[in-house]
Amino acid sequence: MKEYRGRIINVSSFIEGERPVDATTDESGHGTAVAFQIFRTCPMAHVYIAKVIRKDGNEWVPDKDAVAAALRHAADEEGWGVDIINMSFGWTYNDHPGVESAIQEADRKGVLIFASTSNSGLSFGTATKILYPAADERVFAVDAAHGNGQPAAFNPPSIAVRGKERFTAPGVGLRSPVSCNSAITGATFSSPLVAGVAALLLEFARQHPLSDSPSVLDHLKKRHGMLLVLRKMAEQKGMDPFYFVCPWSLLTGRWSTYGGDGSVGTPRWFVAHELISILRGTSDSGGYGPRVGIELFPVHDDG
Question: Is the peptide bond before 241 cis (omega within 30 degrees of 0)?
Answer without folding.
Answer: no
